[in-house]
Amino acid sequence: MTQPAVAVLFRIPDRTRGTWKRVLSRDDLDPDEPRVVAVRDNTLILRSSK
Prior knowledge:
- With 50 residues, the chain is mostly beta strands.
- It has one domain (1-50).
- The chain is built from no helices and two strands.
- A two-stranded antiparallel ribbon has the order 1-2.
């Protein structure tokens, strides 16, 4: 079974705050409700589902 992945590269990641990565479990994903990962100010934000 293949596992989908998304990779984002920052020029200057904030490793102190750890906002440069977002790890999701399988329970966070639903094929019928897509999730949106937004990038703002060198931070990955998981937008809430509807």
